[in-house]
Amino acid sequence: MPARTPIEIRRLKKLLPEKEVGSGLLIRLSDNSEHILNSEILRRFCPCAECQEKRGNTSHAKPLGGGGRAMLRIVKSTIDSETDLRDVFAVGQYAIGLRWDDGHDSGIFSFDYLDTLISRKDDLLNASCLN
Ligand SMILES: [Zn+2]
User: Fold this and answer.
1) Which residue of 32, 64, 112, 125 is most buried, as measured by CB atoms within 10 A?
2) Which domain CATH number covers 23?
3) Residue 110 has pLDDT above 80, yes or no
4) Looking at the 3D structure of the chain, how many domains does it have?
5) Is residue 1 part of a domain?
6) Distance 53 CA to ligand 1 centre (A)
7) What is the pLDDT of residue 82?
């Protein structure tokens, strides 16, 4: 599969209610497709070591698993500041960083990782219903 890379990333303060709730990112990829990742998914799957530890994953290995099943951890305390996306910034030529209202900004989302989240978004959303 050819790698898709983001050509435009826009922070959304409010998503359309009929689509999803909360803030998030509108991502246009190099194949000209547009995708929305809401802030809940972005924060829950923040790839930094600190968030992974909070989620109970001490392996620090691939957050979504290598060969199949997504590893899901439910974040029980979804306080507003944890899912209030304040800023998006470029990290080199390969990734973006997100800054949250609680000050957290150490999660580096590589373009590959973003594409993985986009591809599996529906699974991740459905999984959140188990909460
Ligand atoms: Zn994090």
Assistant:
1) 64
2) 3.30.2020.30
3) yes
4) 1
5) no
6) 9
7) 81
